[in-house]
């Protein structure tokens, strides 16, 4: 069974928990509070020298870091990973976009404005740049979603999970999605996916397991 080291309120950690829930993949959840320095202990750094979560133990003593790498690992061989070469590349394209255009802006704003006490005052100098670049990334997504239900292969994939992680908390860090109707409709589609769980959900908190994405997974 996998061991997942993650932080409940982290968007990057949530992406992995959401994928595992959609796939109904069992795992042991280990909470790591980065705000308390729990990812900087010698014990944790021995597992992941970058001192970041999420971190997935895929076999005894073998660890996989970086949220989107973990997403790809758990998705291969399931409906969350497109089958054709070009569609897989398109999914990866959007996952790279998430990490270089969306997460550094929406993710940073969410961290400092929603999770860190006094973070707004500490990051006043950066907020304007986050907002400008974050809105630019949201517009790229909106333009794509005007003509597509999902981001790759015209189906729900890990690309959608990667982008959902921080987009769904945009309103918690000063971003207004009112003028992005296609994004708002896409958020609702993701939330209707079989097995969907919220960021607050934890394994073992329900009496019945989430529905599987497809029979047999």
From TrEMBL:
<protein>
    <submittedName>
        <fullName>Glutathione S-transferase</fullName>
    </submittedName>
</protein>
<dbReference type="InterPro" id="IPR010987">
    <property type="entry name" value="Glutathione-S-Trfase_C-like"/>
</dbReference>
<dbReference type="Pfam" id="PF02798">
    <property type="entry name" value="GST_N"/>
</dbReference>
<dbReference type="Pfam" id="PF00043">
    <property type="entry name" value="GST_C"/>
</dbReference>
<feature type="domain" description="GST C-terminal">
    <location>
        <begin position="84"/>
        <end position="213"/>
    </location>
</feature>
<keyword id="KW-0808">Transferase</keyword>
<dbReference type="InterPro" id="IPR040079">
    <property type="entry name" value="Glutathione_S-Trfase"/>
</dbReference>
<dbReference type="GO" id="GO:0016740">
    <property type="term" value="F:transferase activity"/>
</dbReference>
<comment type="similarity">
    <text>Belongs to the GST superfamily.</text>
</comment>
<dbReference type="InterPro" id="IPR004046">
    <property type="entry name" value="GST_C"/>
</dbReference>
<dbReference type="InterPro" id="IPR036282">
    <property type="entry name" value="Glutathione-S-Trfase_C_sf"/>
</dbReference>
<feature type="domain" description="GST N-terminal">
    <location>
        <begin position="1"/>
        <end position="82"/>
    </location>
</feature>
<dbReference type="InterPro" id="IPR036249">
    <property type="entry name" value="Thioredoxin-like_sf"/>
</dbReference>
<dbReference type="InterPro" id="IPR004045">
    <property type="entry name" value="Glutathione_S-Trfase_N"/>
</dbReference>
């Amino acid at each position: 069974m996998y061991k997942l080291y993650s932080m409940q309120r982290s968007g990057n950690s949530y992406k992995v928990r959401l994928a595992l829930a959609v796939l109904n993949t069992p795992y042991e959840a280990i909470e790591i509070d980065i705000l308390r320095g729990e990812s900087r202990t010698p014990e944790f750094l021995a597992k992941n020298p970058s001192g970041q979560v999420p971190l997935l133990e895929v076999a005894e003593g073998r660890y996989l870091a970086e949220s989107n790498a973990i997403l790809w690992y758990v998705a291969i061989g399931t409906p969350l990973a497109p089958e054709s070469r070009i569609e897989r590349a398109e999914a990866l394209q959007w996952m790279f976009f998430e990490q270089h255009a969306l997460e550094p802006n929406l993710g940073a704003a969410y961290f400092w404005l929603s999770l860190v006490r006094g973070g707004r005052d500490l990051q006043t100098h950066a907020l304007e740049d986050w907002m400008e670049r974050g809105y630019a990334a949201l517009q790229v997504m909106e333009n794509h979603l005007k003509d597509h239900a999902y981001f790759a292969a015209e189906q729900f994939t890990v690309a959608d999970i990667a982008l959902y992680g921080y987009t769904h908390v945009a309103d918690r860090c000063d971003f207004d999605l009112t003028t992005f109707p296609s994004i708002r409709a896409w958020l609702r589609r993701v939330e209707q996916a079989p097995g969907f769980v919220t960021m607050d959900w934890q394994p073992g908190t329900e009496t019945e397991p989430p529905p599987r994405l497809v029979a047999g997974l």
